[in-house]
Design a protein that fits this description.
Blueprint (H helix, E strand, L loop, with lengths): L3 H5 L4 H18 L1 H10 L13 E2 L2 H4 L12 E4 L10 E4 L2 H16 L5 E6 L1 H6 L3 H13 L5 E2 L4 H13 L3 E6 L1 H8 L9 E4 L12 H12 L5 E4 L8 E3 L5 E2 L4 E6 L13 E8 L8 E11 L2 E7 L14
Parallel strand pairs: 1-13, 4-5, 4-6, 6-7, 7-8
Antiparallel strand pairs: 2-3, 8-9, 9-10, 11-12, 12-13, 13-14
Helix pairs in contact: 2-3, 9-10
Amino acid sequence: MVDFSNLLAIKSDADFERIALEVFHYQLKNCSIYRDYVHLLNRQNAKSLEAIPFLPIEFFKTNEIYCGQKSGKDILFLSSGTGNSTRSKHIVRDIKLYESNFRAIYHQFFGVISNHVILALLPNYQEQGNSSLVYMVDTLISDSGNNLSGFLLNEPEEIEIRYKKACASGKKVMIFGVSYALLDLAEKNINLSEAVIIETGGMKGRRKEISKKSLHHELMKGLNVPFVSSEYGMTELLSQAYSFEDGIFLCPPWMKVLFREVHDPLTLIEGNGKGAINVIDLANIHSCSFIATQDLGRNVPGGFVLEGRMEQSDLRGCNLMVD
């Protein structure tokens, strides 16, 4: 069976496809919901990346997407939700795999965490509980080994104090925040010009939805930063993609984004046409690595960009409005 060392060894598209097909056959055999779905489509003999079926993400709301038998050591993560919406559930068998995964991705995109102070503005995730994002950020806070790191709620003065202390000690400040909490902070006009702002998306019903471009503009203006990064992740996955100055999302070597026709979900789009996002997350070995999301985007050189959400889809952490 594929383990994390196999994922770290991926160096080419051929490596990725080989391991993806191994994971596909493992999950076809061991994940009953995915197996039933694949057989319904009669796609169980997939021999290429393009032939692998992607499980609609809505299945995570009504089913337990899990390989094999559950154990007493499983960790349950729930998606963020608004109102009375049903929250997706992801049963994680190997929490150490999740930790190794997000640590490796963070190091790839941001560098050595001991050089950083991690601040988190994720109030709704903390309030609702069982958040994979909170688990990740909490672990990164601990990994930083710095007592300035931590979760902060409605404490702009404390954020400014910690930011200044971190800068004075030569540490880089990384601020993870949900969109509405970052906008609340930006309205205080605090100068955080040396910080890296990582928005995790979502107004969660607390503010009017705006486009990502408008959101970043407001944050850049209010926090005096040259750009805003974004995290693209979700409860149903174990991996994350990140964007930087150009707004292009980059994936770790074991994660890939493909695009499908909105009105023909079994047909993939080639080139840079706009389509619905299919995610391959090979780290998600014990659940399902092939997920059809409700997000829209398009392929660009070096990565992908988000274009919004499919109509009539639930408000979720990665919800966007199109300009």
